[in-house]
Design goal:
By secondary structure, the protein is an alpha+beta fold. The protein has two domains: 240 residues, no CATH class; 176 residues, CBS-domain, CATH 3.10.580.10. 54% of the residues lie in helices and 13% in strands. The protein has 14 helices and ten strands. The protein has a four-stranded mixed sheet. A three-stranded antiparallel sheet has the order 5-6-7. α1 packs across α2 and α2 packs antiparallel against α3. The structure holds zinc ion (ZN). Zinc ion (ZN) binds next to α2.
């Protein structure tokens, strides 16, 4: 949904992890450059390059602090309304507070959303007032100018976010209103994301016009934002549908056949298993105990000519790094964890019996098939037919192969418990 390049954590604020995506550095360089060479020399002529650079850097830093406060406002209200917030990420288009679930009621959605633009408006007023107070004092004039400019930027930030296109705040408020009136979250989301796409196309057209007629950089930026917004709207709707489809569906319904592989099996053999349609992560079993998991993605990362020599045990992910969930866990819970797991899968097991292994790929494949077959509209627990509730891979042979007693103690030391206890659900949320 967000064009993230890979992010790193910079700290924690009010309990929310703050992350910076690598794409954010493109933005900060661009902003400092425009502030230093264009904006401040135009707004306050007569100073040296060093003064403009200092003003540009200060303005950029306070602008990002403002963005962070906007997202923090969303996050704090979300938490108070029972919506889990994974953290705040700054990226090339600004900031985003990542939640793994929807608000429970329209009024919650409205409150969580409206405080963001409100925070920006309060900041706009504060910066503007500070600027007005200091701009007349000769020595403080540059600081006053930076402050007034920050006031204007925060105002623009609030105004832009209030445009009625999902996933912008205005689009979320619109969705909450339609949801309140119709009682139908799916319809509200469809309308709001349609608004987001229309707005995105409009901005792209406006950007194209500016590229041809006026300020080239502004036009390019506007077109870029429009492109991002139309994409984000489309993928928000797809993600909404997916979350809807998998809510209350037990993980066992999405499990695929998982043939156990020996540690000395070659990566070439693994590739053959994957291409033949096995689940996209397979258990590595030694002497009847599970020792690790190999994923399709990791096999894909090994060049063809190196696959015959490399073995499963050299490529596998250790059990200590993998979350274990009981079979009655719901898919939406697992998805929330998998989205931040760096490609690590989830093991489904109970009483030392391995039911299967899941990756995001397996789940999105399941969603696509369930929709093709019309099963997404059936009762999630029953699936229309009794068998769907049964673990698909529970054969006698599998029971024999899949005990993992040997590694339970090691995984305990990690703070991750063994198979099948309810506390497993908490693991990995950190
Ligand atoms: Zn916002």
């Amino acid at each position: 949904m967000i064009p993230l390049l890979g992010s790193f954590k910079v700290g924690r604020w009010f309990g929310f992890p703050i992350r910076i995506d690598l794409s954010w550095f493109v933005l900060i360089v661009l902003i400092v450059w425009i502030f230093t060479t264009v904006e401040f020399p135009r707004q306050l002529p007569g100073y040296g390059d060093g003064a403009y650079l200092a003003m540009g850097i200060a303005a950029a830093l306070f602008f990002f602090l403002s963005l962070l406060l906007h997202e923090l406002a969303h996050s704090i209200v979300a938490r108070s309304r029972g919506v889990h917030v994974q953290g705040i990420t700054l990226f090339i288009f600004g900031g985003v507070a990542q939640t793994t679930m929807e608000a429970k009621r329209p009024v919650d959605e409205f409150l969580i959303t409206v405080v963001g633009p409100l925070a920006s408006l309060v900041l706009a007023a504060a910066f503007w007032a500070l600027g007005a107070l200091t701009a007349e004092l000769y020595i403080l004039a540059p600081a006053g100018q930076v402050s007034r400019y920050l006031g204007w930027l925060n105002f623009v930030l609030a105004a832009f976010n209030l445009l009625p296109g999902f996933p912008l705040d205005g689009g979320r408020i619109f969705r909450a209103a339609v949801w309140q009136v119709t009682g139908d979250l799916r319809r509200a989301t469809r309308w709001a994301t349609m608004g987001g796409r229309l707005l995105g196309y409009t901005l792209m057209a406006g950007g194209g016009f500016l590229i041809l007629q006026g300020p080239f950089i502004s036009g390019l930026w506007l077109a870029f934002i429009g492109w991002f917004l139309s994409n984000a709207a489309a993928s928000s709707y797809r993600q909404f549908q997916m979350i809807r489809t998998i809510a209350n569906v037990p993980v066992t319904r999405a499990l695929r056949p998982t043939p156990a592989v020996a540690p000395q099996a070659s990566v070439l053999e693994l590739a053959e298993l994957f291409v033949a349609g096995a689940a996209s992560a397979l258990p590595v079993v030694r002497e009847g105990g599970l020792v690790g998991v190999v994923t399709l993605e990791d096999v894909a990362g090994v060049p063809n000519d190196g696959r015959a020599e490399l073995t499963a045990s050299e490529l596998m992910i250790d059990l200590g790094e993998i979350r274990v969930v009981p079979p009655d866990t719901n898919l939406d819970e697992v998805v929330a964890w998998l989205q931040n797991s760096d490609g690590r899968p989830v093991i489904v097991a109970a009483q030392e019996v391995l039911h299967g292994i899941l990756t995001l790929q397996d789940i999105s494949d399941w969603v696509a098939r369930a929709r093709t077959l019309g099963l997404d509209r059936a009762d999630p627990r029953r699936g229309g037919v009794g068998e769907y509730a049964e673990p698909i891979v529970r054969t006698e042979a599998r029971r024999e192969e899949s005990r993992w007693t040997r590694h339970r103690d090691e995984t305990h030391q990690d703070g991750r418990s063994g198979a099948g206890t309810r506390s497993d659900r908490e693991v990995g949320h950190g």
